[in-house]
Amino acid sequence: MFKRLVSALSRSPVREAALRGAIPAGQRIYAVGDIHGRLDLLDDLLDQIQRDDAERGAAQTQLIFLGDLVDRGPQSAQVVDRLMKLAERKDRISFLLGNHEEVFLKVLEGDEKALRFFLRIGGRETVLSYDISQAEYDACDYAELLAMIQARVPASHTKFLHGFEDLIVLGDYAFVHAGIQPDLPLDGQKPASLRWIRDEFLNHQGPFEKVIVHGHTIFQEVAHGPGRIGLDTGAYETGRLTAMGFERDERWILQTAGTSGGAERLDAA
Questions:
Q1: Residue 172 DSSP class
Q2: Of the residues 168, 176, 184, 252, which has the maximum number of CB atoms within 10 A of its CB?
Q3: What mean pLDDT do residues 153-181 have?
Q4: CATH number, domain containing residue 173
């Protein structure tokens, strides 16, 4: 369940003027929000993207996943495997490192402190998705569980996650997981901010160097703020996994079915 529910900031349609942007002619981008272990929704959305891309005609199409593939939902291992195999056979597909992948990688490096935090932010579901039974999980102390995770997670998954990026700039847009430090240029951003920042970024009312497309903070609908677009619609909880398409100066939304809601913001790690 979400930690807290607070009022939304700057999501009025009048903010659209601040969000105008374009990508170079001949390119098409689909940016996908936080998946969090929902393989069912990922497969649905990938089918929608494939159909939409075909209907729109020829273009250089790129998929950008905004991070947080893992945790909370029941099939993190399967999501990682699905996207790893998709990347093996498809050009122009990129992945941003979310804060949940960052913590997961620390666990895979043998960090017991990271494991304790990992389990508090939805990592239990990731652990169980790697063929670790509930009985095994319950019987382990932290050291034993850490060793079991390291043994069960394929090296190919670890290598795949290590290849994720922190920032992708295309045309008038910058794609990140969490957001950016408002007082720093894009080329001066620190990985910790790109993966973890929240309020300082969301509360910023001035322009950014680019239109920032991000995940990380959950909104019940796609969030349009001053100079930013938030695509994390809480898929693991709401059933709504969201993608946004970009072509020239056009944008559109693709989304799986889920419960409807307003423009509230739902904070989670």
A1: T
A2: 176
A3: 99
A4: 3.60.21.10
